[in-house]
Design brief:
Blueprint lengths: L2 H19 L3 H12 L10 E7 L6 H18 L3 E7 L8 H14 L7 E5 L1 H14 L5 E5 L13 E5 L3 H12 L5 E6 L7 H9 L8 E6 L3 H9 L5 E5 L13 H11 L4 E2 L12 E5 L1 H16 L10 E2 L2 E6 H6 L12 E3 L5 H54 L1 E7 L4 E4 L1 H6 L11 H5 L4 H15 L6 E8 L5 E12 L5 E10 L1 H56 L5 H30 L6 E3 L1 H18 L3 E6 L6 E3 L1 H18 L9 E8 L4 E8 L27 H11 L4 E5 L5 E8 L43
């Protein structure tokens, strides 16, 4: 880049910086406090370090140094130091105009930053810092990292200290001459971007003591093609000492490693240099500085000065140095490692098979020796293992046979990982291969029917939390073909001493066939309930038809005979009169038949015996259990201890209670299954009566005619017969009790009936309680000792 272009870029940067600061004056004012030290009371202003590097930011040597320097600075300061880095790149942009541009750039950039320590890296940056320090950072102490201070003796030296990398060339040449005692000439490759021979002068000072021992020839600032041509023809008994040379004949800047690689490939003699970064690119080696150690020392000095130490009271330190060589270059030039000084480091050594794997080879030999010892034991173990495998196989076969026969599958849920092992046989029962359902809880729960999933999950969580002694759930599972299978799950948790569950182990049993059978039983029971709901009506109609047949035939025959007689000219009056008497008698007989059957329907003959109400309730709940489960109805029964035996017919009382249960379940079909609750309670209602109450949470009595509710053929259901409650009332009243209904305070209705106790005498049909409209006040049962009124005769509209 030409100086004029660089100057133009710097001016543009300065203008942009000024333009940016103008609309951000408020921010500059806010940062001014931190710059000048005006920080809030009690706060500590961070210390700022500015490092100046002469190389480009992508130079691997300096990148490694910067990383180590920053790491030590950050670690030892507790992250209380602000670290800034600037790369001058003086080798690609040499000259005083470039230096002034860099000065203006730093002045603009750090105008609002107070720098506490300035850290110039290398002699050129140290010269730059001393030259422009008064303009940029007049009160800032300097900590340097350089090979010599000779080049800055003409500058006013402010308080400073640092790390010196001295005698780099002197010690390397001394080492080389001891390794090659027949060396007659040393060719020094050097050069600077300014072509001012400053590096050559510095090397000449260090090699002054060798000028009488060997001939020193300087190859300074030569074009690349010429330099390569020279090193190709160097005489035997000479070596190359590489210092610095970066420009080729086209003006393109080469990296140090690239140039050393070219020189080494072309050279006829070994190339040495005091730089660790060049080992591996063609340099045989030299006495090199330890850059990581030097960076650490520099960071420690910078931190001491940043914390207030006076630099003039801190003596400069030196970088540790060690003789380091490249094994590949030693082999190329036939240099034995025995000629190296003690303590030397050899890099890039190509290890032999033994050198690379000697530990593994030793271990392998030991294992081979031990292997023969274990072979006999392994053979014995093999025999035992085969026996154990055979036993295990037979055990697994028995287990598979048992689970297949019982349609049982085992599962194991790990609560720590949420993984669940499911017996492959259980998956096959649902039509899946083992790999088609992952061993995750979520994958298995997806197979549970959506309507049962929450209930099953809640039951499992309750057991995991310790709220239930075990886990039990009946739920539906989706088969692969879309059908439904029923399973019952039983499980127990494995718990730690503190009670925390870590896994749950259980079984799933296929009960689909049982559920199908229960469903068929429920249908049969439902049909049975319907049959005996209409049985009374059927029996009533059949008895009328049978008993009215004879009088109707008599009426018909006598009527026809009378008509024939009346057609005669002289009808037999007595015969007609006798026929009409027979018709009247047959009509009276038919009327008696109707009255007698109506009386039979109303006054039922009861086979009374001593009964336990609790057993009657249990029998009925057992009959209805399938319907209860299918309808998701929660049933609660309660029989008070003071309830005595009653006198009645077991079958008919069961019929009454079953009718009331079926009606209650029908009333709850339209509501949320989670709110379906049914309770049966038996209490002693006075000294002579037992009261049985059936309470549901169904649709209630809204829209029901309570006056006709127990009348025959009255129903509010589309498929009802209207005889169930009528039959129930007939049975209860035949037992000397009464039956009534009450609306609940909340949802649903309550049906009640009473039965005399075994020690009391039945007093005849009980007077039913006064009926109330739906949502009206609760009907109060009559006192059991009050006289019973005769039940009202059914009207024609309800008969």
């Amino acid at each position: 880049m030409k100086p004029g272009c660089a100057l133009l870029i710097a001016l543009l940067l300065a203008a942009c910086s000024g333009a940016e600061r103008t609309p951000q004056a408020s921010e500059a004012k806010q940062s001014a406090a931190a710059t000048t030290g005006d920080v809030p009371k009690g706060a500590v202003r961070p210390r700022r370090v500015l490092a100046l590097h002469s190389e480009a930011s992508d130079n691997p040597i300096h990148a490694s140094f910067i990383r180590q320097f920053h790491a030590v600075l950050k670690q030892q300061s507790g992250n209380t130091v602000e670290y800034y880095v600037e790369h001058y790149d003086s080798e690609r942009f040499p000259g005083e105009p470039q230096a002034r541009l860099m000065r203006d750039y730093l002045r603009q950039k750090y105008a609002d930053r107070k720098i506490d320590v300035l850290f110039p890296w290398g002699p050129f940056n140290l010269q730059f810092a001393l030259k422009y320090r008064s303009e940029l950072f007049p009160d800032t102490p300097i900590v340097y990292y350089t090979a010599t201070l000779d080049e800055v003796r003409d500058y006013p030296l402010p308080p400073m200290t640092g790390v010196l990398n001295l005698d780099t060339y002197e010690r390397t040449v001394d080492l080389v001459l001891r390794m090659h005692p027949d060396t007659k000439e040393v060719f020094v490759v050097s050069g600077t971007p300014q072509r001012d021979r400053s590096i050559e002068h510095d090397i000449a000072v260090q090699l002054e003591e060798f000028k009488d021992t060997v001939k020193l020839t300087y190859l300074t600032d030569l074009p690349l093609d010429r330099l390569l041509a020279i090193v190709k023809r160097l005489p035997r008994g000479s070596i190359i000492l590489y210092s610095r040379q970066q420009h080729d004949e086209a003006g393109r800047v080469l990296q140090q490693s690239e140039l050393v690689d070219l020189l080494s490939r072309s050279a006829s003699v070994p190339l040495y240099g005091p730089w660790l970064s060049l080992i591996g690119y063609g340099s045989v080696g030299g006495v090199v500085d330890n850059r990581d150690a030097g960076a650490a020392k520099a960071a420690e000095l910078v931190l001491r000065v940043a914390r207030g130490a006076r630099p003039e009271e801190i003596p400069p330190e030196r970088t540790p140095r060690v003789a380091t060589f490249d094994a590949r270059q030693l082999q190329r030039w036939g240099i034995s490692e025995d000629r190296l000084p003690p303590g030397s480091v050899v890099l890039n050594r190509e290890l032999t098979l033994w050198g690379q794997y000697k530990v593994y080879i030793s271990i392998a030999g030991l294992l081979i020796g031990l292997q023969s010892t274990f072979i006999a034991g392994l053979l014995v173990q093999r025999i035992r293992r085969r026996r154990a495998e055979a036993l295990l196989q037979r055990s697994e076969q028995r287990y598979a046979l048992a689970t297949a026969t019982g349609r049982v599958g085992v599962w194991d849920w790990d609560l720590e990982t949420n993984e669940i092992y499911v017996d492959p046989a259980l998956k096959r029962a649902l039509g899946f291969d083992d790999h088609e359902i992952e061993n995750r809880r979520e994958a298995w729960e997806m197979r549970i029917h959506p309507e049962d999933a929450d209930r099953a999950r809640a039951a499992a969580q309750a057991h995991v939390d310790g709220r239930t002694p075990d886990y039990h759930s009946e739920h539906r599972v989706l088969h692969k073909d879309g059908s439904i299978r029923w399973f019952v799950a039983h499980a127990s948790a494995v718990r730690l001493p503190d009670g925390r569950a870590v896994r749950v182990i259980g079984t799933d049993t296929d009960i689909t066939e049982l559920k199908v059978a229960e469903g068929r039983l429920a249908e049969s029971q439902h049909e049975l309930a319907r049959v005996f709901r209409v049985s009374a009506l059927g029996e009533f109609a059949a008895s009328i038809a049978h008993e009215l047949g004879h009088p109707l035939n008599a009426i018909l025959l006598n009527a026809k005979a009378s008509l024939r007689w009346l057609e005669d000219a002289t009808p037999p009056i007595e015969e007609v009169r006798s026929a009409l008497r027979d018709i009247a008698d047959a009509g009276n007989l038919a009327n008696e038949v109707v009255h007698r059957n109506r009386a039979l329907f109303r006054h039922h003959t009861v086979d009374k015996q001593l009964l336990d109400v609790d057993s009657v309730i249990r029998d009925v709940t057992l009959i209805a259990r399938v319907r209860l489960a299918k309808s998701h109805v929660q049933l609660e029964t309660r029989v008070h201890e003071e309830v005595p035996l009653v006198c009645g017919d077991r079958v008919e009382l069961q019929q009454v209670l079953l009718n009331l249960l079926l009606n209650a379940m029908d009333a709850m079909e339209a509501i949320d299954p989670r709110t379906r609750r049914l309770s049966i309670e038996a209490v002693l209602a006075g000294p002579l009566l037992v009261q049985v109450t059936v309470r549901d949470t169904g649709i209630g009595l809204k829209g029901v005619d309570l006056e006709r509710m127990f009348a025959a053929f009255y129903t509010t259901k589309s498929d009802g017969t209207g005889v169930g409650l009528s039959i129930s009332r007939t049975i209860v009243e035949a037992h000397g009790g009464r039956i009534w209904v009450e609306p609940n305070d909340g949802p649903g209705a309550t049906f009640c009936f009473t039965i005399p106790v075994a020690t009391g005498r039945p007093t005849g049909p009980a007077q039913p309680p006064r009926q109330t409209k739906a949502h009206g006040p609760r009907a109060q049962p009559r006192h059991p000792e009050a006289p019973h009124a005769a039940p009202p005769r059914p009207t024609r509209s309800s008969a």
